[in-house]
Design goal:
There is one protein chain. By secondary structure, the chain is an alpha/beta fold. The protein folds into two domains: about 170 residues, Thiolase/Chalcone synthase (Peroxisomal Thiolase, Chain A, domain 1), CATH 3.40.47.10; about 150 residues, Thiolase/Chalcone synthase (Peroxisomal Thiolase, Chain A, domain 1). The strands form four sheets. It has a five-stranded mixed sheet with strand order 1-7-6-4-5, with helices on both faces. It has a four-stranded mixed sheet with strand order 8-13-12-11, sandwiched between helices. Strands 2-3 form a two-stranded antiparallel sheet. Strand 4, helix 4 and strand 5 form a beta-alpha-beta unit. It starts with a strand and ends with a strand. Bound molecules: acetyl coenzyme *A (ACO).
């Protein structure tokens, strides 16, 4: 059996935060941010909004796009670096919000690679015939776990959500995938406190340990390396070459990461989806939001071969090759 995407949706908060607003908060400039990251704007959720709210909106749109009802969903897989809470799973909260009463629900924690891990997992449940319709959601309210006093990180992130419905398809679909992890790099990118290693207390709050910490240079080098290797892996596994690929949709972290990896692959930048200028890094939501935008822009057509490639905290990485069904 083959698994493919039969519906897609995305949802972004209305509030746009341009670089000029960051100039007022930390010691930075619009020029520095644009030159070093390519980011111009990001979206910021309202104070009462959590990841499940954005995820539920994107999920409703994806289910509608698939011409299904919420009751038709058998399983919800939610990926988020900024979940509503440690437990219950954000997937369960989304399940309740959209009234997907027949769905099992669980979270995947693979940071920015979460959507690629989720999609790969969903495909297994479809290919074995166990489930008919699996919803995969990537949703983030990173603005609430960002340290707005740290200019190294606060310029990078944004809020948003994207979702897809994965079901059985006759042709094409999710052709090959490749996932990787290296926990020895866990401390390069982390949100250290609030778990059992550093439980929340006065000191963790005072020392700002509940916010994202990142070694930007090391993550940068890692990202370029695995972007290239994961892309090559899925293409080889599918017995294709990069010439056969119509579009690469990478995790939207930094334009310099994308440029460097694409140069190594000798792949034309015109066939790479980039929208990080508008939204910044939305972690697990980056790829589904970019994929939905690519569909709306007519950059993906039925039968096109596309690669989703991601990297993030864990460290984790992965890629999926899809022959587009919609
Ligand atoms: N404004 C102005 N200056 C700054 C800023 C800022 N916002 N941030 C850092 N600087 C300064 C630094 O202090 C440093 O100054 P110094 O030379 O006086 O010490 C200088 O700029 C250069 O700093 P670098 O960190 O070397 O800058 P770099 O070019 O590496 O860019 C960045 C930093 C943008 C963070 C880059 O390293 C990067 O994109 N890394 C990867 C991040 C990423 O992709 N994360 C993805 C995963 S996210 C996830 O999984 C949740």
């Amino acid at each position: 059996m083959r698994a493919g995407i039969i519906g897609i949706g995305s949802f972004l908060p209305d509030k746009v935060m341009p670089n000029s607003e960051l100039e007022k908060i930390v010691d930075t400039t619009n020029e520095w941010i644009v030159e070093r990251t390519g980011i111009l704007n990001r979206r910021i959720a309202q104070a009462h909004i959590s990841s499940s709210d954005l995820g539920a909106e994107a999920a409703r749109l994806a289910i509608k796009d698939a011409n299904l009802k919420a009751e038709d969903i058998d399983m919800i897989i939610s990926a988020s670096s900024s979940p509503d809470c440690t437990f219950p799973a954000t997937a369960c909260i989304i399940q309740d919000k959209i009234r997907a009463i027949n769905a099992a629900a669980f979270d995947i924690q693979a940071a920015c690679t979460g959507f690629v891990y989720g999609l790969t997992t969903a495909a297994q449940f479809i290919m074995t015939g166990k489930y008919k319709n699996v919803l995969v959601v990537g949703s983030e309210v990173l603005s609430k776990v960002t340290d707005w006093q740290d200019r190294n990180t606060c310029i990078l992130f944004g809020d948003g959500a994207g979702a897809v419905v994965v079901s059985q398809v006759q042709k094409g679909g999710i052709t090959t995938s490749f996932l990787g992890a290296d926990g020895s790099g866990a401390n390069l990118l982390e949100l250290p406190a609030g778990g059992t290693k550093e439980p929340a207390d006065y000191d963790t709050v005072k020392n700002r340990r509940h916010y994202i910490k990142m070694n930007g240079n090391e993550v940068f080098k890692f990202a370029v390396k695995v972007f290239e290797s994961s892309t090559r892996r899925v293409v080889e596994k599918a017995n294709l070459t990069l010439d056969d690929i119509d579009l690469i949709i990478p995790h939207q972290a930094n334009i310099r990461i994308i440029d460097a990896a694409v140069r190594r692959l000798k792949f034309p930048i015109e066939r790479v989806m980039v929208n990080l200028d508008k939204y910044g890094n939305m972690s697990s939501a980056s790829i589904p939001v970019a994929m939905h935008e690519a569909v709306r822009m007519g950059k993906i057509k039925k039968g096109d071969k596309i690669i989703l490639v991601a990297f993030g905290a864990g460290l984790t990485w992965g890629a999926v090759l899809i022959e587009w069904n919609l």
